[in-house]
Design brief:
The chain is an alpha/beta fold. Helix content is 30%, strand content 20%. The strands form two sheets. It has an eight-stranded mixed β-sheet, sandwiched between helices. A two-stranded parallel ribbon has the order 1-5. InterPro entries: AB_hydrolase_fold, Hydrolase_4.
Length: 262
């Protein structure tokens, strides 16, 4: 239902004239994760902050790179990882494992020189947003450091069990089994239940009115459940294609810059 990985390299940052570093991280349960560190690239201007990017459920970081390739030129470092079973990361994907993976990445990022003294943001798209809500809610609740300055959720479903039930119910062959099969998915990480716990960290929710993969009502539900401070951006693109539109990039940059004080 949630994970569709492959190990094909679609594009690397150097093909987009981006500096980058391959990062390998060991998880507490013995997996090895691959990620990319993309430093800010706005000449000699100060770095504005760091963005931890969690990608969607298909392929791997190389196919999602274009979603964040524009951020280094805007003054932001970007760090992104592949969950276990994706790309060059070891293992096989599952929900609990992916949650461990995204926390492993954030802990590495928090310990990296030059990150903790600048604003830190989480950007999750689709599946990455679902994982990001669970991660951010625990991070805030435990008062972990460095603190997050903002969380951006793009094209995200309101719950793992909720979207599974919806997808199973949309196909005649699985329709009779939508309830029993959805109960096999843990309900400990439903975004609609967890998103209030991200407060007082600001949240920006982005969702397209014509998203054919994660329907618009999921974004509306997440926004309704979130506590202030919160922002909603209604878009008009295919699923997770927000950043092909310059105006939408500008809205996200404005959100980041308003939350830039530590």
């Amino acid at each position: 239902m949630f994970f569709y990985p492959d190990n094909v390299t679609y594009i690397t940052p150097d093909r987009l004239n981006l500096e980058y570093e391959d990062i390998y991280l060991d998880t507490p349960d013995g997996e090895r994760l691959h990620g990319w560190w993309l430093p800010a690239a706005n000449d000699n201007a100060p770095v504005k902050g760091t963005i931890y990017y969690l990608h969607g459920n298909a392929q791997n970081i190389s196919s999602h790179l274009l979603n964040v390739a524009w951020l280094p030129a805007e003054g932001y470092n970007v760090f992104t990882i592949d969950y276990r079973g994706y790309g060059k990361s070891s293992g096989a994907p599952d929900l609990e494992g992916a949650l461990h993976d995204v926390e492993t990445g954030l802990r590495w990022l928090g310990a990296k020189n030059g990150v903790s003294d600048r604003p830190l943001y989480l950007l999750g798209q689709s599946l990455g947003g679902g994982l990001g809500i669970a991660l951010a809610s625990e991070w805030v609740k435990r008062e972990e450091q460095p603190a997050l300055n903002g969380v951006v959720l793009d094209s995200t479903f309101s719950g793992f069990r909720l979207i599974a039930r919806e997808k199973l119910g949309s196909f005649w062959l699985t329709w009779p089994f939508q309830i029993p099969l959805s109960w096999t998915i843990p309900d400990d990480y439903e975004g609609i239940d967890r998103i209030p716990e991200i407060s007082p960290t600001p949240v920006m929710i982005i969702h397209s009115a014509r998203d054919g993969i994660i329907p618009y009502h999921h974004g509306v539900a997440l926004y309704g459940a979130a506590k202030e401070p919160k922002t909603f951006l209604k878009t008009d693109t295919p699923h997770a294609a927000t950043f092909v539109i310059p105006a939408y990039k500008g809205e996200v940059l404005e959100f980041l810059e308003k939350r830039s004080e530590k």
